[in-house]
Each structure stands twice: as C-alpha cells, then as structure tokens.
Design goal:
The chain is an all-alpha fold and 173 residues long. It has helices at 7-26, 30-34, 46-68, 85-95, 101-119, 124-128, 141-148, 150-171. It comes from Rodentibacter ratti.
C-alpha cells in the first residue's frame, strides 16, 4: 500500500503492518525469538526492534499531547535534532538491554493501541494538511504519525524478515 493520505488509510496500514509484525514474530519458537540477529546493526534481537518502536511511540505521544495543550514540545527531546537522533536511538537501545522480550512485546502492543486510539481523534484535514498545526513545522501531523507507525513498522518487518530468512538458512546447514 502506498503512503497513507487519509486517516482511514493510516489506520488500515498501521494495523496491517502491526498484525504482519506479530504474525512473523509468532511464527518463531521461543528460542528463535530470543536469538541474536546474525547480521550487524544497532538492534541485535527482536526485543531491541520492539523497544525501539515503543520508544518512538512515546516520542509521538508526548509530542502530540503536549502541543495540543499549548505546551510547545519538539518531537525529538533536547539535545537531539534530526542530525543527531541516531545517538538517541542508541540510548533507547542501552536503556532496554535488561528489558525481557515479554515486557517489550506488552509495552509495544499497549503503545500501539494507545497511538491508534489517538489517531481516531483527528480528521483528514488536521492529519494531512501541511502546517495545519504550527508545531509540526513545514509538514503535517500525519507525517509524524506515519513515521512512528506504518512506515516504522515496515522497517521492523524488513529486519525481522531478514532474521527469519537467516534462521531458515542456518537450519538447512
């Protein structure tokens, strides 16, 4: 599905990608779910991917809630900006190294539900009109939401699909 342009498309694609993600995860046995990825990258296992998505949901939630209450808050917390946010992602990774997979799953599922409910409060105009809210800068609120939901889930799907392929290759050796 192309990038969402309406509230319904955003909800549909986000939910579809969320369900695909858990379908992939649930296709693995418990050992495979805990297995370290066989390829390089910041995220070393499924837990790392899920807590990353969870933390970006938190950024989105705080950004929207604060700004709707006229308490300006940038999307990225100080001292980060769009050039330095990879450092923030590493901090998220470090923060969750002792988080159990079960908690990562529960937290992500809960935050997804919360974000989906939040989306329903908006309409197509205030989601997809650029500069509708001054606090979204030159873009739309929908752009922020897409980046933290449907398109971010696509990123996660690619990572987990790569791991599943790697696990299958290992089992045929």
């Amino acid at each position: 599905m192309p990038r969402p342009k309406t509230k319904n498309e955003l909800i549909t694609l986000s939910q579809q990608n969320f369900e695909k993600l858990f379908s992939m995860i649930n296709s693995l046995d418990e050992t495979e779910k805990q297995t370290t990825f066989s390829f390089e990258g910041r995220d070393r296992n499924i837990r790392d991917v899920l807590v990353h998505l969870y933390e970006w949901h938190q950024l989105l939630w705080k950004f929207i809630q604060a700004n709707l209450m006229d308490k300006y808050r940038p999307f990225l917390p100080e001292p980060y900006n769009w050039k330095t946010y990879p450092k923030m992602n590493i901090e998220f990774w470090q923060k969750h190294q002792s988080t159990p997979l079960e908690k990562a799953i529960a937290d992500f599922q809960e935050s997804h539900t919360k974000i989906m409910a939040l989306i329903t409060q908006f309409n197509d105009e205030n989601l997809f009109t650029k500069k509708y809210y001054s606090w979204t800068g030159s873009t739309s609120l929908g752009s922020y939401i897409i980046s933290s939901t449907s398109s971010h889930y696509e990123w996660a799907l690619k990572i987990i699909k790569k791991q599943i392929k790697s696990l299958k290759n290992l089992s045929t050796i």
